[in-house]
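Margin note from the TA: students keep mixing up input and output lines. Inputs are the sequences; the output is the structure of the whole complex. Example:
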Amino acid sequence: MKFFQKISKLGFSNDGLLLWALVANEVIVHDALAGEIVIPRMRALRSAGSVASSADGRRLATAGEKAVPRLWDLSPARGSADDLRAIATALSSHSLVDGTSALTPLRQAELHENWQRTRELLGGWQTAEPEADAARKSSAEQIK
Amino acid sequence: MGAVWKARHVHLNRIVALKLVYAGCLPGEQADRRFQREAESAAKLCHPNIVAIHEVGKIEDQLYLTMDFLEGGSVAERAGQEDFSLREAAILMAKVAHGVHHAHENGILHRDIKPANILLDATGEPQVCDFGLARIMDETSDLTVLGEILGTPAYLSPEQIEGRKDTLTPSSDIYSLGAVLYELLSGEPPFPSEQVHVIARMVVEEMPGRLLASCSGVRIPVDLSTICMKCLEKDPKNRYATALGLAEDLERWIRGEPILARRTAPAERLWKWARRKPLVASLWFLVTVLLLVVAGVATVLELRVEKQRAIAEDLARRSQHRLARQLSQSAQHLIEQHDWLRGMPALAEAIRIGTGNRRLDEVNRIRFGVLLRNAPGLRAAWFSGEPIFRAEGNQSGTRLMLATRRTVEVWDVEKGERIGGRYTPDAGISNVSFDSAQGRWASVETAGGRCHVWRPDDGVVRDVGEGSVHSPPDGYLLREGLFVLFKDASWEVQAAMRDERISGPFKCVSRIRWAAALPGLTRVIACDEDDAVHLWDMRTGVDLVPPIKLGAGSRGIAFDGFNSFTRTAVLHRSRECWVLDCMSGEILVYHENLADIPQSFGRDANGEWVFLTRNDEGVAVRNLATDVLRWPAFHGALGFRGSFAPDSRLLATQSWIGSARVWETDNGTPVTPYLWQTATPGSCLLTPGGKWLLTRGDEPGARLWNLRANNGTVEMPGTLQGGRHLFFAGDPERLVGAETNGRVVVWDPGEPPKQLLEFQHPEELAVVAPAGRGKFVLTAGSRTAALWDIRTGKIFGHRFMPDVPILHASADPNETTFAAVLAGGDIVVWDAGKGAERVRIRASAQRVVISPDGRLLLALSGRVARTWDARTGKAASAPVEEAGGPCMQFSARTENGSCSGAAWAPLGRAAQGCGMRRRGVSGSHFHRTGWGCVAWRGARTGRGLPPAAAIRLFTSATAARVKPWCRR
């Protein structure tokens, strides 16, 4: 692995899965063996002067110039793979073409279907349903 | 007993056998009568295998009897001439047994069955003679009779030999039949001997020899031998119960069927059956063979199919794993391209399929969890079936207005609830403006030219008459409860929710294209169809400055932020731009040939006007005063729409392929990954603080994104200025942070996190480290080192205050001791509990590290490293000198539950042969279990080269490089 900026600190997670690096005041978390980035560069991880890993390696603490230490949750996403797929589909508005790695945008109905499932799993807003007729009648009465 | 003559019955003129009983054999009248009675009884027997007696009588004291004359002689004679075959013997004896059985059924025992008493007719059919006569002879004669019997004791049963007359039964005759059969099969009687008394003894005491082969050398079948031997059993109970049983068993053998005398194995019975019915057996055999062949072939085919299926399943599984890995890599690529959201489906699919590698699957789940917690999320989507042509928010970003050509609705962003009902005017909607200050009302211009003011909280609608409320593109038209209503060449100012005209109507020269009230309720800015911009006094309608003439097609683009409202930027044509001081009417900036097409205007952190443009490269931000490019950014596709947040710190852009993204205004750093909608975007609305982003396009619909300003992190309470020391310690786990000025803070990192305590080291900190199984914290400055209890924030035991400065210190991970390097190079192991030095080592060290198990000290001085026993102070190893640089480390290896320390100093040794040594190693970190370490070298600054660093991953045991990494 090569970085084009100075490495300040390195550390393993306790289970050896992850390797975090403090590079130019930015924390980057890698797959310890594959070397792939596990956590992409994020705004809040910048300007970190120090970083620490919890014993189980599933929490990172960073502290830096902004004087407010932050705690990062690196725990894995649990739940069934189907639920994860529904969440990923709804949040991204894209789905995978079966058997390939090609992504295709969701149509409205597909998004709505996945959105409902995601809302059950994660909570959140609901989509607006058209109530045009009732609303039109109500508005007309109000104007009169 | 007598002589047999061939005689002719004179009266009947037939040839008979005349048997004359020797005189004296049956003395007495009584014996005569008994002879006649027995002979008459025997004469009643009528069976094809019994010689028929015709007449019994006495002539001149000569007893006689006549019977059928059989020309074939006796079996004894025949056996003397030629051998019986096994089958002939069996057939013959079966017939004889039938005859004997017939006699037994009539209550007559023969008692002297022997080959000589079995006669053969002309056709060879056997017939038994002399029934009952033996009994008479036996009962009436002594020596003479005995002499007669002496010739045939070999055929008598043991009970007859022993003279037990009361036990004579048909079994005795069966024995005799067996003896005859034995002789016919083997060629000699069961007990061949010349001496009678020997025969008699053997009959009583011994079993005859096993029948193995006939006299002609033919092997005697086991079944036939068994039948014969069953007849010769000493105990009558073990013989056949009847002569018929013997006859039937012989007949079974003849037919090839299993006999009853011996239990036969199923295979043998099957074989006999097959011999009896060869055709059927052949058919069955063929069918069986065919079935077996078919079954065998089917089995082979099935095995092949199973094998092929297993191979196919294995290939399918491998293919699935390969696909999952490809998806994982695809997701990784998308994530690295900041397209997190589109990386998530690929990642989820990779997790669902499984890569076949548990570690990689777990990493993928971690990656997914991190994305889920940190990536912006779609919080709401509106699909009303019609395009949303206007989406606006209020100043604080708490309310959103969405309008289609038929309906308007307002949503509370934080609660995710619609405020009130929908407003749906009958005539349809031509334009909508939102109360951008409070979001309490909206003005709706219907398609019929009427203007309605609608309050979503209570649904009140007020018809304010004909007119227009066309707003500038940024929509900041209606402020502080007032709006400008204009129609044709007049305008007036009205209060929004009360029937009050503030001022006007005022006449103007040309038809007004757009107009807006400025803050402070003193001025109105408007643009007419002559492309003249007016600044009017709101109360009097008087022109405050002469009309500002702009070129055709000018339109308002942006007002200054929410605070000053003193300036506005006006676009003319496509590449001309003005910045107009709305108070003085002065044109502050004018560009007649801008490099790019402006989209939105805002102010950077220094208060300078910047504007967002789009070009073939994506999006760019330029300084409006100088038209200098501030920063460009590639948006994945051509930039299409964009707008600044009200506070101008962030800006959002949308590309023509449907992705939206948020950037920092000052430096162009992306704040979010790509946010996708499925159609060409129409506009985007960024709330202050960058918490929410609303995108709309021609889906038709609008989407609200939660941008997660904290990126999913949790902020710890309190502050940590310039925190250089941070670690987790203890159980339950605590987070400890330390400032260089000596302030140490302990947090509980639970949910929610809270600050537990803090304490102050009296001087600038050089070392802060966990000690004593995480229960303590070692703080060390130049004069003092101490252990602190992280539960109480108090100093544990005694602090270490040497006379000379402390250069470095290291805590025992398990005990309440620590090692310190003093000026001069001495190493002191301090027992904080006792407040005493445990060991002092005279050395010239600069740094010291205690091994994970606390038993060793690793001291480094320049390039020389050496290990010492932490308890005795004796050297544990010879000095090691390396040219690799001042790097030292311990690895902890768990073996049998114990942790042993191993010196890895300097790391250049571990890295030897991997190219790290000569280049120098600046740092290393070992995995806690000791399975490997990473090492890195520090910044390399060279001419024209950026600062560079490299990481190598090694296994502790072999120092072999596990994987060469070469990624950015």
